Amino acid sequence: MKSLLSKAGLALPDDEVSDWCTLLGGFEQSVQDLLALEDDLPVPDTNLYPRTEIFIPKTSEESDGNAWATRCIAESTNPSSSLLAGKRVAIKDNIAFAGMRCLNGMDPLDAPWVPTYDATVATRIMDAGGVILGKSACEAACMEPSSDTSWTGVIHNPYGKGYSFGGSSSGSGRLVATGSVDMALGCDQGG
Q1: Tens-of-pLDDT digits for all 191 residues of the chain?
Q2: Residue 55 exposed, middle or buried by CB count within 10 Å (0-12, 13-18, 19+)
Q3: Domains in the chain, number
Q4: What is the extent of the structural domain holding 172?
Q5: Model pTM score
Q6: Which of 28, 83, 117, 138 is the most buried (most CB within 10 A)?
């Protein structure tokens, strides 16, 4: 314990080190119990939530100026509400969506992650009658405040070519601005 503390530039009195060792020793079994549990990830029923026409845009027109990372059509065959009935939605490319690569704005040659489960927000969109049209491009590791670091390419502001469309969720913003979708998810990753 003292060695770990010193590496972090910290120190504790001896009587408190003993207390921390007792506390952390009891925590170890809880961690092991948790790690031994089977994963309970939301694997989608592809009959209820089919995905069709999955493709990677090749042209500027297909990608709406680099704003799409991957395209598809995904909707529930039996939505539980009509809150988003017929609304076209894009989900940011750092959100898990089964069967579709998740680039997080990075080079797909570095073994892209293809999740086997859906983020809860994606399921809720489809349950509400929304139609997911694909994954919107995002900046490299979702860490940039500009719109020029995405692997898909520079995402230009549709109202001023050559001007930035903002950071991290730039693809989502452009897709809404151009009318390609009715709404899009953006989210914070880098804090």
Answers
A1: 788 788 888 888 888 888 888 887 778 888 888 888 887 787 899 999 999 999 999 998 999 989 999 999 999 999 999 999 999 999 999 999 999 999 888 887 767 889 999 999 999 999 999 999 999 998 887 777 777 778 888 888 889 878 887 888 889 999 999 999 999 998 876 54
A2: exposed
A3: 2
A4: 51-184
A5: 0.78
A6: 138
